[in-house]
Amino acid sequence: MRVRVRFTVDKPLPRGTVMKVGGERFWVDIKIERLPGFCYCCGCLWHVLRECSDYDEEVPEDELPYRTWLRASPIKNKGRGGGADREAE
Asked: In terms of pLDDT, which residue wins out, 38 or 19?
């Protein structure tokens, strides 16, 4: 499922959220399209990992709280109506 949401960019990116459907609660991972460079250590958009003051170089990158799974694949809109979200072909 894809949804469009707004979030505050002066706080770390959300990695997921709890949703309630039919009285049942479950965790949903969030993936973000068109994500610019961001910090895999703290999740902030205004700097990258090598510029992060919280980053400990001894921690392997595969153990950081944010990783490439946060980046969603873009939608291919070929054959679908147009609109503001249509990618340039």
From this structure: 19
Token pair 């946060």 is found at 70
What's the CA gap between 46 and 88, in Å, rounded? 26
Closest CA to 67 of 19, 31, 34: 31
pLDDT at 89: 36
Quote the CA–CA distance of 75 and 87 in Å, as a whole number: 8
Mean of per-residue pLDDT scores for the chain: 78
DSSP assignment string, 11-48: SPPP-EEEEEETTEEEEEE--BTT--S--TTT--SSS-
pTM of the entire predicted model: 0.55
Q: To 10 degrees, the CA torsion angle through 57, 62, 64, 69? A: 140
